[in-house]
Design a protein that fits this description.
29% strand, 20 strands, alpha/beta, five-stranded parallel β-sheet, 4 helices
Amino acid sequence: MDQFEQLRAGEWIYGITPEIGNELLRAEDMCFRLNNIPPSHKAEREAVIKDLLGYIGPGFFLHSPFRCDFGFNISIGENFVGNYNITILDEAEVVIGDNVFIGPNVGIYTITHALQPMQRNEGIMRAMPVRIGNNVWIGAGAVILPGVEIGDNAVIGAGSVVTRNVPASVLAAGNPCRTIRPVEDSDHVVPVELK
């Protein structure tokens, strides 16, 4: 089992290695490239995004700046909207479903470091996957921590720190994030007709 497999398996490893460093540098270069392509050069941006990520479905919008650690551990479904300044530290898998909206300044983190300073200084770390269901909206400035699963149709309020799983079809918010209430039929809005 190589280091990347050990990370994805959630094992504590010495993470400061040439192999990991090379992959971090590759992804950082690709993110730099992406973030310096004008938004009007859509085809060029899409090509870099598809090369960087493990998978992304059709119909996506990913605004710059965007940053990730590896990229290849990220899988995103169709009709994705990612706003400005999203950071995904993907030492473990990050699986994002269809029709997901992510607001600006959101962080999704799979990696954690040893609590003991001596071990942390030696680069001991582990990763746990993050899973985000279909039809999820994550508000601006939210932080999703390692090992979290967010159920289908959930809404995460702006500024939330999600430390544990969020069930489907709820509005959840706060620090730490907690369920506020179900998303209900009464939440249906009627938009004004365009003239």
